[in-house]
Amino acid sequence: MEMSKTISNVPARDAAQKARPCGDGVVGENFFEVSDLKKSIGEQKILQGVDLDIRKGETMVVIGRSGEGKSVFLKHLIGLMDPDSGSILVEGKEIVGLKERQLRDVRRKVGIMFQDGALFDSMTVAENVAFPLMETGIRDRELLLERVGQALDKVELTEHMAKMPINISGGMRKRVALARAIIAEPQCILYDEPTSGLDPVVSESIDRLIRRMQKDLCVTSLVVTHDMNSVFRIADRVAYLREGKIYFLGTAQELRDSKDEYVRSFVEGRPVENVD
Amino acid sequence: MVKIIEATGALVTRFLRYQGEVALLMLETFKALFLGKVRWNLVGQQVVSIGFGSQLVVIVTGAFTGAVFAAQSYFKFSEFGMDSAVGAVVSISMCRELGPVLTGLMVAGRVGASMAAEIGTMKVTEQVDALRAMGVHPVDYLVVPRTIAIMVSMPLLVAEAIGFGMLASHVIVVYGFKVPGAWYMFHVVEHTELIDISIGMIKGFVFSILIVMVSCHQGLAASNGAVGVGKGTTAAVVVSSLALLIFNFFLSLILNYMSPLGSN
Asked: Which of B121, B122, B134 sits opposite A107 (nearest CB)?
C-alpha cells in the first residue's frame, strides 16, 4: 500500500511552503492553520485531530465521504462551531474561544457559500446579494445596484434579480449564494459543496469562477466537495478527510497518481478492496 | 426510588438550564439594545407586523370579553338593583386583569408562534449561520428589532383592548339592557383611575418581554428540521402563555401593593 502522500507520512504542517505567484502578489504564508482539531456531536466523534494549513491564495479542496465531517470542519474555520479541543489560527490569530462579537473582524475577511445556499427567504435575490455590502455600511443605492449586477453577472443570474429565493431553482439559489459570498471581495471564500445538484455546464462555470477569483483577486479558497471532476479542475492541493483526520494531503496530480487503496477507491468511486 | 430522584433531578436541571439560557438571551439583547447598532428599518417592519397585524385579534378579544363580562355582571347585579355599577366592575377588571392578560395570551399565540417559527426556520436552513458568517450577530438582527417593536406595541395593544372592551360593555349595558347611560358613565369615571389603565399597560410591557424572549429563544434553539421548528413553535406559545399567567399573579400582587384597589 503506497502511503507516500498520506498524512501519516507527510503531515500537513511539514508540507512544503513554497512561495508561488498569485495575481500580482506572492503567496506562501498560511491563511488558516488548524492543529489537532477535535469535535464530537453527541456520542459521535466527527473530527479526531485534524491538522491542516491553508496557504494564502491557494485553492484547497477537502474531499471525503458523506458524514466524515467536511462541512463541520469548514464551519469551525470561522467559528460557526466550537471545537472540543484544538487550535485554529486565522492569519496568525487564534479564534478558538473567541466570543461571537469578537469573531466579527475575522468573519468579514471570509465569504462562505453554504451547501443549500442559506439565502434569506424574506429578501429578493438582489437584496440577498447586497446584504454583505449593506452590513459594511454602504447605502448608496446606485453603487449597490452596480455591485449586485456585477456579482450576479458572474453567476449568470442578472435577469433573476427581483425574484424571491423560493421562486428560483436549487441550482440558481446556489449561484446566488456564490454571488453573495464574493460581492464583498473577501480575502478567503469557503465553498460547501458548490457544484452538487448542478448540471455539468453550470458546474464547470462555477469551477471557472472559483479559479478566476483565485487568479484575479488572489482569493484563498477552501472547497468542500465530492465532485472529483471539480477537484481536478480547481484544486491546488487536496486534503482527504477520513475517520476524522486528514488522511491524504497533496496536489491534484499526486491525488490522481496515488496508489493508496483508500484514496484510489474514493477517487474512482468504488468500494475499498484488499486493505490490510 | 433512585430513578424518581434521577428523573426529578434531570427535570430540575433542564428547567434551570432553560431559565439560564433565556436570561442570557435577555442580557445579550438589552446589551445590544443599548450598546449596539439598532436596525430601525427592521424595527419599523416588526411594529407593523406585531402592532398593526394584531389589530383584528386584539379588537375582537377586547370587545367580546368586555361585552360578555358586562352581560354576566348585569345579570347578577340587576337582581340587587345595582345595574349601573356594571360599568365600574367591567372597567376595573378590563384595565387591571382581563385587558392585559387576554391581549398577552392572544399576542403570544399570534406573534410568539410567528417569531419562533420564522427564526426556527432560519436556524435549521442555516440562514442564522449565514448571518453569523457575515459578521452579523443574530441577536442584533433578529431579536433586538422584535424586542423594541413588541415593547412599544404591547402597551398600546392592551390600551386598545381595554378601550374596545369598555365600548362594547357600554353598548351592551346601555343599549342592550337599557341601563341609563349617564349613570353607567358616572360609575365608570368615578371608579376608574389613570393608575388602573397604567397597571394594564405596565403588565402589557412586562408580558411583551416574556413573549419575545421565550419565542426568540425557542427559534434560536430550534434543531432537527421541520419537526424541531414545529416543537419550538408549540413550546413558544405554551411556555410564554404559562409564564404570562404566573407572572401576572405576582405582578398583580406587587402592583396592588404599590397602588391598592380603591385607595384613591
From this structure: B134
Chosen for mutation from B126, B146, B229 (greatest number of chain A CBs closer than 10 Å) is B126
pLDDT of A6 over the 50 cut: no
A80 vs B129: CB contact, 8 Å cut-off? yes
Option in A75, A118, A131 nearest B125 (CB): A118
Query: What are the CA-CA distances from residue A184 to residues A63, A131, A187 (Å)?
Result: 27, 9, 9
> Does ipTM come in above 0.90?
no
**In the predicted structure, residue B214 carries a pLDDT above the cut 80:** yes
Q: Are A184 and A217 in contact (CB under 8 A)?
A: no
Q: What is the nearest CA distance from B29 to chain A, expressed in angstroms?
A: 13
Q: Which residues of A touch B35 (CB under 8 A)?
A: none
| Reported pTM | 0.85
Question: What distance in Å separates residue B49's CA from the closest CA in chain A?
Answer: 13
SS3 category, B262: coil
Mean pLDDT to the nearest integer, A21-40: 75
Domain range summary for chain B, segments of one domain joined by +: 39-258
In this structure, how many other beta carbons lie within 10 angstroms of the beta carbon of residue B106? 19
Question: What is the gyration radius of the CA atoms in chain B, in angstroms?
Answer: 21
Kindly state the cell numbers that stand for A218.
488572489
Cβ distance A110 to B130 less than 8 Å, yes or no, reads: no
Residue B80's pLDDT is: 83
Q: Regarding beta strands A59-63 and A44-55, do their DSSP bridges make them parallel or antiparallel, or are they unpaired?
A: unpaired
Nearest 10 degrees: Cα torsion B229, B234, B240, B241? 160
Which residue shows C-alpha cell 462541512? A71
- CA distance linking residue A74 with residue B241, whole number of Å: 40
Map out the domains of chain A as residue ranges.
1-109+227-267
From B4's Cα to the closest Cα of chain A, the distance in A is: 25
Partner residue opposite A118 with nearest CB, options B126, B136, B137? B126
Architecture in CATH for domain A1-109+227-267: 3-Layer(aba) Sandwich (3.40)
